[in-house]
Structures are given as structure tokens and as C-alpha cells.
Amino acid sequence: MTHTPPVTLEDVRDAAERIKGVAHRTPVLRSRTLDALVGAEVFVRCENFQRVGAFKFRGAYNAASRLSAAQLSKGVAAYSSGNHAQAVALAARELGTTAVILMPEDTPRSKREATAGYGAEVVTYDRYTGDRVAIGEALAADRGLALIPPYEHPHVIAGQGTAALELIEEAGDLDALVVPVGGGGLIAGSATAAKGLLPGVRVIGVEPEQGDDTKRSLEAGRRVCVPVPRTIADGQAADVPGELTFSVNRRLVDGIALVGDDQIREAMRFAFERLKFVTEPSGASALAALLSQRIDRVPPRIGVIVSGGNIDTERFTQILSG
Length: 322
Description:
Blueprint: H1 9-19, E1 28-29, H2 32-38, E2 41-46, H3 56-64, H4 69-74, E3 76-79, H5 83-94, E4 99-104, H6 109-117, E5 121-125, H7 132-143, E6 146-147, H8 154-171, E7 176-180, H9 185-197, E8 202-208, H10 213-220, H11 243-252, E9 255-259, H12 261-275, H13 281-291, E10 301-306, H14 313-320
Parallel strand pairs: 2-10, 3-4, 3-6, 4-5, 7-8, 7-10, 8-9
Antiparallel strand pairs: 1-2
Helix pairs in contact: 1-8, 3-5, 3-8, 5-6, 8-9, 9-11, 12-13
């Protein structure tokens, strides 16, 4: 019996049509300095320039826009450490509905305020003692809201995959694609698009050293839970891969590289000083893997996704001086 994957290249292409004119087609940046340091041609997809400052808007809008009028009339809900929260809040506003967002108490202030600024109601919880999925599902059920999870949804995954789809359309053939990994939605969608277009491409995920749940899971052949990561890369502080995302990533992802907070910090500094843009810690992890030579057998042409740039001045300065 032939297995039908939960997300296909056609799903990603359909998502690209749905978000066209709503999400930004973000720039692909080139740098001779970066090429020289990495020893390859590097194509940087700058999702820090996406609406809400991160790739998350792609998946959130693709999923929310498919809800029925009856569902939209009741509103939507989400749980998130920040970027998905803002993405769902903005998608709800674009579609004329309301949003209730569950966020950790220690979410960076800029992300929490931005979420509320898009018109969402913010409800908080303790990420170290509470189960955000259970709390979020109960909140949505109690209020009759349509829940849009941050990565465990085929329409969310397909939407995230449009970042890689557009990168390949602009850069042409790539030998490898390097992608940050948190819950696994961005890399699942990106791998679906990349492998669909370029069957021989290597797809490499990057996780914080303190949050290597996907790496351990791929090595074990099953989902492995780790202690809640304590890392500056708050957007990658997942303790276990998503069930749906892992089912995709175990088929399509070729490997996982790990980076420490120091390497992420230096990648943020490099992006600011040499590439002239700001990235949040999670957004810089894939770039950090390239700069710190954590990628084996560097091929001639590499795509890398900078996944977001949501960070306030105080925290940016604090991290770089740490």
C-alpha cells in the first residue's frame, strides 16, 4: 500500500498561491564575505523581513484562511512562545476575526506586546510547569475557538514550506538547505518543497545544543523528549518534536547540526555587522551552524533560512554583550 504524505509539494504550491499578496516575498541576500567564510555560495532567505518579523505568518495565514465563515465568526486560538502568536493574531485581523493567544510568562516583552498590538487577547502560563498543548486545547474548546497550532497542522506546514519554495525559485538549484528547527514545522515544509523540486538536495536542520530533541529522535527512530531547553534561542525551546512534523522529517531530513548559545550570539553579531540586518537568536541558528563549521561536507551552493528577527533593543544588546 502506498503511503500518502501529510504534506506534498502541491500543497506547498497551493499555499503559495493563497498567501500571495498577503505575505511578503522576502529577499534572498548574498555576501562575498559569507561565501568566503563558508567556502561556498550561500543564499540567505531573510524571513526576518516577513510580516510579524518571522516565517510563521506564512503558515498561520494559510491555515486560518481555510476556515469556514462560521468558524471565523467565533474566532481563533493559538499557543506560542512568540512568533506564531503574532502570526495568528495578524492573520485573524486580516481575516476580520479575533484571536486568543496562550503565551509563556517569560516570553520576551517585545513579542508579547506585539501580539497584543495586533488585537489579540493574551493569556499566560508557566512553560516549565504547564503543558501548553493541553492548556491551549482546553482554552479553545471552552471558548469555541478554532485552534491553529504552531506546527502540528498540514496547512501550517505547507505554508512554512513556501519560504523554501520561493528561495529555490529565486536562487536556482541548491546542493543543501540549512533550516532552524524548533517544533519542526519550518523544516518539514521546507524539506517537502526542496526535495520535491530538487530530489538530490541535502536538508540539514539546526538545533540548540540544549534542545536537541529532533536530533535524538531521528537517531532513535522515534520521538524523544528532553528537558525543557534553557537557551537564548527561545523560539527553539521545544522539548519533543511534533508527531506530524516528525513523520515528515524522519523521511526527508538528512541530518541535524547543533550550535551553542555562543555560536548563535556570534552569528547575530555577524548578521548585524556584516550583513546589515537584525535577527533574533532562533533566527540565527542556521547561519550559526554555517559560520561555526558545524555542517559536514560543505557543498558548492547552500541555501540558509534566517527564520525571524523579533527582538527588542535591550535584549539584543544584552545578548551580544553576554
